[in-house]
Each structure stands twice: as structure tokens, then as C-alpha cells.
Amino acid sequence: MTKLIAYFIIGLLPISVLNAVEGQCFFEEVYKDTSSQNGIFLISDSDMRYEYFDSKLFTIIHSNNSFFLIYNNNRNTFEEIKDARTKVFSNFVKILQNYPNIDKSLLIDDMTIEIEKSQNSNYPKRISIKSNKVNMSIYLFGCQSKPINKLFFKLNPIFDYPR
User: Strand (E) positions, 11-123?
Assistant: First the structure.
């Protein structure tokens, strides 16, 4: 289930902002059962990194127009995400190309997505996802526009980003 949630999340994040913004945000995912996960989101040019802090979870890197999954407890191996899940990413990228000029609520397939805009950031403040499979919110905070070294989007070896 966690993999499925992460695939939806990655698709929601503002990859389109890459053309205008380079930086980092911390995130907290809060699920319907009140459990949560924390991590960091990095963005630079056409690259993106979504990394959970929990060593039992994973990191997803978008590089060279592909998505890769790296388990945090085995950072020496990775797998490319090639199947239908990437369609979800593509749909959200298209939608978020217009961020912040985007509707507050969107319906895509069976998902209702609500975006709460930040008044002082180039990133959304909160993204809510509701569907039969997922019911959660993603809070972005501590966002900083700053250059991110390309090393942090490489797969082999994967470099730890200083927090």
C-alpha cells in the first residue's frame, strides 16, 4: 500500500515548477488512520527526489525522464518504474504545469485532489488525495528555493542529502 501511495504522491508534486524553481521542501504525509510519514522533496531542472526518512521505506528519483525506486535499507540497488503507474505521474505533471494558476479541486479518474496554495511559496501548502484506494494529505513545509547539486539525483551511488 505504501508504494501505491508514494506513486500518487510523486505525481502530485510540482515537477512543473522545475522550470522556475530549484529547491527543497520537507513533507509530512498524513493518512486517514492518523498515521504519518515524513521526508524531504528536492527539485532541480528536470530532476526530482522524494525521500522518506524511515529506513524501512524508499526514495523515488525522477531523472532522465524516468522514475526510479531505491529502498532506503538497500541503497545499492534500484528499479525503474515503467508500468502503468507512470501514467499517473504524467497526468499530474500536465495539471501542475500551471501551478499556482490551478483549480483548488480536481477530479482525475476516481481521485479527488484538493490543492491548498501557499501564500508565500512557489510550492503548494497541502495536497489532499481522496479515492477508493487512498485518503491522505501531504503537507509541504520549510520550502527553500536554492540550488541543488546534481549529485543528489544520481542513482549509483546514491548520495545522502544533508538535512
Answer: 23-31, 36-44, 47-52, 58-63, 66-71, 79-81, 105-108, 111-117
CATH number of the structural domain spanning residue 6? 2.50.20.10
Number of domains in the chain: 1
Average pLDDT, the chain: 79
- Three-state DSSP class for residue 141: strand
Handedness of CA 144, 99, 140, 104 (dihedral sign): positive
pLDDT value, residue 54 = 97
Q: Which stretch of DSSP H or E encloses residue 7?
A: helix 2-12
The phi-psi region of residue 118 (left if phi > 0; otherwise alpha if psi is between -120 and 50; otherwise beta) is: beta
| Residue 162 belongs to some domain of the structure | no
Give strand pairing partners of 47: 44
Q: Cell 522524494 belongs to which residue?
A: 50
Q: Which residue bears the cell 482525475?
A: 108
Task: Please give the Cα distance from 145 to 121 (Å, whole number).
Answer: 9
Residues with pLDDT less than 50, the chain: 1, 3-4, 7-8, 12, 14-20, 88, 90-97
Dihedral (Cα; 30, 63, 122, 88), 10-degree rounding: -50
